[in-house]
Design brief:
8-stranded mixed sheet, 2-enoyl-CoA Hydratase, Chain A, domain 1, alpha/beta, elongated, 3 domains, 520 residues, 7-stranded mixed sheet, single chain
């Protein structure tokens, strides 16, 4: 055997060893927890045969605490490029079988290289997180590594889509990279995120709490809103990431790919003509409305279990990827509160950054009142949504289905926030407030002066009907040009698709500035 053949054989063997990460025993331990390895996850995520690995032979440079006695090629993270559905993506997957996936300086350098390359060529980055945190043996070098990653998250924001998948532990400073990315997905029962673990919480606050209770997928997808999605399994997580990517462009200079559909743009939905109840205080399900409008009834919801009084997510309309924001009358009557406002604001800003048009379906009675909301800064949080819509330059189509009252009317993509085409159903009530409250303000003295209970009730009903006739309809707004048209509900799909077709070439610039000062 020649020297060259010996070298090739040695290369093949070294690659084989590197692909085992921490070795067979640690791989078995990973499997025993119901978790896949980093390479197994990437094989499931990427198109078969498309993965090209970077930096397989990188090793750590630490000499403290006996670390110089053990070196494993790859150093706990698998990085590279591949395709999903034929589209280029860059990936990194932390390998828990190597030093618990802890972050070293060299691991951060590998991750940063992938992120830098992704920005250069304009393709999404997907990070599969499974790490015990900073590698303590490396001290400040590990912290510096996190800082380098965070800076790239920040500089990449709004340039390329960034997606984080939490498939194991993610604690301490490690949580900030996922928090800086566009979307975070967690796997139920096998992943968790928190700044300080249960032991520290117990010693500082006295609280007894488990990892799952403190930072599991359910907590972060329903209570904190840190996670946009939760998955039942790693396979389910990978499936959701692939679905999400189908709605997104490669970068901020492109548009999302068109998805051919056999669903006719002119399809009508008679169901919509009767979906609004006669009783204005009765709820109905906004999901049914959305399904009746979008292509093939397919709606991919974001933040499904968090702030459920507002719905956000992606769908296709006439094959075009579209972001949908809709009040949900079935939860808290569809009011806007702190969580709903920041949930929708974040989504609107993402869509605007990546050229995804916005459809807003409005049925909002106002903002949630009370000391909890006021002390929690509902003013500032409501302003986030107002700011996001007012700043957005993508095509914006708004349809008011029923209630649109007061400040909430303004916040939900009204004409004055540069809504491009605003429609209303005949059932729409666009006013400062509903009739019940308005009558008390406008006719309070008159009603107070009437002492007979029956006459007072009749007078209140009369004034209420007068107010409804004057304000609680879409026609005053239409007469003043605040909405383009009052449309028949069954034709909503056709009218919306045609509106987006007209707006496809929209060009609108923001004033020159270093950056905005979003109300945070």
């Amino acid at each position: 055997m020649s020297i060259q053949e010996d070298k090739i054989k040695a290369l093949v063997e070294r690659r084989k060893t590197a692909k085992l990460g921490g070795g067979e025993k640690r791989i078995e331990a990973q499997h025993s927890k119901g978790k896949l390895t980093a390479r197994e996850r990437l094989a499931m995520l990427l198109d078969e045969g498309s993965f090209e690995e970077f930096d397989m032979f990188v090793q750590h440079r630490c000499t403290n605490f006996g670390m110089d006695a053990s070196h494993i090629d790859g150093d706990g993270v698998v990085t590279g490029q591949g395709t999903i559905g034929g589209r280029l993506v860059f990936v990194f997957a932390q390998d828990f079988t190597v030093n618990g996936g802890s972050l070293s300086k060299t691991m951060s350098e590998k991750i940063c290289k992938v992120m830098d390359t992704a920005v250069k060529v304009g393709a999404p980055v997907i990070g599969l997180n499974d790490s015990g945190g900073a590698r303590i043996q490396e001290g400040i070098d590990a912290l510096a590594g996190y800082g380098e990653i965070f800076e790239r998250n920040i500089l990449s924001s709004g340039v390329i889509p960034q997606i984080s998948v939490i498939m194991g532990p993610c604690a301490g400073g490690a949580v900030y990279s996922p928090a800086l990315t566009d979307f975070t997905l967690m796997v139920d029962k096998t992943s968790y995120m928190f700044l300080t673990g249960p032991t520290v919480v117990k010693s500082v606050t006295g609280e007894d709490v488990t990892q799952e209770e403190l930072g599991g997928a359910f907590v972060h997808s329903s209570k904190s809103g840190v996670a946009h999605f939760s998955a039942d399994s790693e396979e389910d997580a990978i499936s959701k990431i692939k679905k999400l990517l189908s709605f997104l462009p490669q970068n901020n200079m492109e548009e999302a790919p068109l998805l051919p559909t056999s669903d006719p743009a002119g399809r009508t939905a008679d169901y919509l003509n009767s979906v609004i109840p006669d009783n204005p205080n009765k709820a109905y399900d906004m999901y049914g409305v959305i399904a009746s409008i979008v292509d093939d009834g397919d709606f991919f919801e974001v933040h499904r279990n968090f702030a459920r009084n507002i719905i956000v997510g992606f769908a296709h309309l006439g094959g075009r990827s579209t972001g949908i924001v809709a009040n949900q009358p079935g939860v808290l009557a569809g009011v806007l509160d702190i969580n709903a406002s920041r949930k929708a604001a974040r989504f609107v800003r993402f869509c605007d950054a990546f050229n995804i048009p916005l459809l807003t379906l409005v049925d909002v009675p106002g903002f949630l009142c009370g000391t909890q909301q006021e002390y929690g800064a509902i003013i500032t949080n409501g302003a986030k949504l107002l700011y996001a819509y007012g700043e957005a330059t993508v095509p914006k189509v708004t349809v008011t289905l029923r209630k649109s009252y007061g400040g909430a009317h303004i916040v939900m993509s009204c004409k004055q926030l540069r809504g491009d085409i605003n429609y209303a159903w005949p059932s729409a009530n666009i006013a400062v407030m509903g009739a019940e409250g308005a009558v008390g303000v406008l006719y309070g003295k008159e009603l107070k002066a009437e002492t007979d209970p029956e006459k007072k009730a009749a007078l209140a009903e009369t004034r209420k009907n007068e107010y409804n006739d004057l304000f609680c309809n879409p026609y005053q707004a239409a007469q003043k040009g605040y909405i383009e048209d009052v449309i028949e509900p069954r034709n909503t799909r056709f009218r919306v698709i045609r509106a987006f077709d007209v707006l496809a070439g929209k060009r609108q610039e923001l004033p020159a500035k270093k950056h905005d000062n979003l109300p945070l």
